[in-house]
Design brief:
The protein has about 400 residues and is of the alpha/beta class. Helix content is about 35%, strand content about 25%. Bound molecules: cytidine-5'-triphosphate.
Length: about 400
């Protein structure tokens, strides 16, 4: 996948630096060549010798001496790469990048490069959440710097929260997305995913069993083919994919608003299991047992149908609108009728009867319904369904 690609890998000074060594290995396994640059602080965690041995290339450090400069100047070093990856990107490195400092080799290379830069932040949760760090991240995103992670989890310092560096394979996926000139390059695709939560009162809500796995896999597959993806997700079980714009929502109405904001798009995939109904008047305080034995009665209101709304738009309708149909009986007939009723171009229909194990599971068995009829796909992993759909979409968009 990365054959012939050149990665300049800047290793900052954090405990996650050891993962950068694995990252070198993973990138090289995929055919990329890696030139490591280790900051002074980074050398407290990994040695130039180990990075150089894994990369089979010289590892550059601050001791970039005149001999090196004669071999390859720092400007050239920063531009010979196809992509610059900063992993771990410490709070200090992000601050230097956002402020435009160039007082060591790593920061000088980052200032001098004309290539895209992908940062994998890694730091203590408080440092990550600090307004100064968040301000720097916003500045860097506005400058076009790409980010992968950080992930949430236990940290080496004993705390819990966002700040863990993305895993090497997640960084590889982000590298691939950044470098690939896929067939969907230049296309904007929006994907809805996950369940919605419809509040009853401040502590209770109505939900469904959607894990978000299929929508997440579709967003990742579209992004891997070069599309710019806006991923609008309800509260899902699986984490959102890397390298896409993530918009988190709770309710169907919030999802509708986020979709409208994300338009225009070349295509829309509506994989979310949107709740059809919400509670008409959400209680503003917790509904209590009143001791009389009388049960509360919930009155419902219908939620907006996002797929139907977008399919029937006049000017802003994406050229290709794909819906899902979760059915338990007469899958093809029901989904064909649904396609006509909603006005979308394709429906991916699946049988979600409990015995199929599809809802919340890792596999899917779908039927693609378009204007020409129904095409049954064999049962396969949700990732494989996603890749097949993304390829079909790339064909259709031309
Ligand atoms: N959908 C939507 N907004 C809604 C309900 C559904 O965008 N309020 C989308 C889903 O994302 C999916 C498609 O519509 O792409 C089909 O949803 P499904 O729940 O299967 O169908 P319903 O419209 O609920 O029809 P039925 O209740 O007859 O199954």
């Amino acid at each position: 996948m990365l054959a012939g690609k050149k990665i300049l890998l800047i290793i900052g000074g954090g405990i996650a630096a050891f993962k950068a060594l694995d990252l070198i290995r993973r990138l090289r396994e995929r055919g990329a060549s890696v030139t490591p640059v280790i900051t002074r602080a980074g050398q407290e965690f990994v040695t130039p010798l180990s990075a150089s041995a894994l990369a089979a290339d010289k590892a550059y450090t601050d001791l970039f001496d005149l001999t090196d400069e004669a071999e390859m100047g720092h400007i050239e070093l920063s531009r010979a790469a196809d992509l610059v990856v900063v992993a771990p990107a410490t709070a200090d490195l992000l601050g230097k990048m956002a402020g435009g400092l160039a007082n060591d080799l790593a920061s000088t290379l980052l200032m001098a490069t004309d290539k895209r830069v992908l940062a994998a932040p890694s730091m203590n949760v408080r440092m990550w959440q600090h307004p100064a760090c968040q301000r720097n991240v916003t500045t860097l995103k506005d400058d076009g710097i790409l980010f992968v992670g950080p992930n949430e989890g236990d940290m080496a310092c004993g705390e819990y929260g966002p700040g863990r560096m993305a895993e090497p394979l997640e960084i590889v996926t982000a590298v691939e997305a950044a470098l690939l000139n896929g067939p969907l390059k230049g296309r904007h695709v929006l994907v809805t995913s996950g369940p919605t939560h419809e509040p009853i009162d401040p502590v209770r809500y109505i939900a469904n069993r959607s894990s978000g796995a299929q929508g997440t896999a579709i967003a990742a597959a579209l992004s891997a083919m070069g599309a710019k993806v806006t991923f609008i997700t309800g509260p899902a079980d699986v984490p959102p994919p890397v390298g896409v714009k993530v918009v988190q929502v709770e309710t169907a109405r919030e999802m509708m608003a986020a979709v409208e904001t994300a338009l225009p798009a070349d295509a829309g995939v509506f994989a979310a299991a949107v709740a059809d109904w919400r509670v008409k008047s959400e209680a503003t305080s917790k509904i209590k047992k009143d001791g009389t034995g009388e049960l509360p009665v919930l009155e419902f209101a219908e939620n907006p149908d996002i797929l139907a709304h977008v399919s029937q738009m006049d000017k802003s309708r994406p050229a290709l609108v794909v819906g899902f149909a979760a059915e338990t009986d007469d899958v093809v007939a029901n989904a064909t009728a649904k396609r006509a009723r909603k006005g979308c171009d394709w429906i991916l229909a699946n049988d979600v009867s409990p015995e199929t194990g599809i809802m919340g599971g890792s596999e899917n068995a779908v039927v693609l319904i378009d204007a020409d009829g129904a095409e049954t796909w064999p049962r396969m992993g949700k990732d494989a369904v996603a890749k097949r759909l993304a390829a079909r979409m790339a064909d259709a968009l031309g």
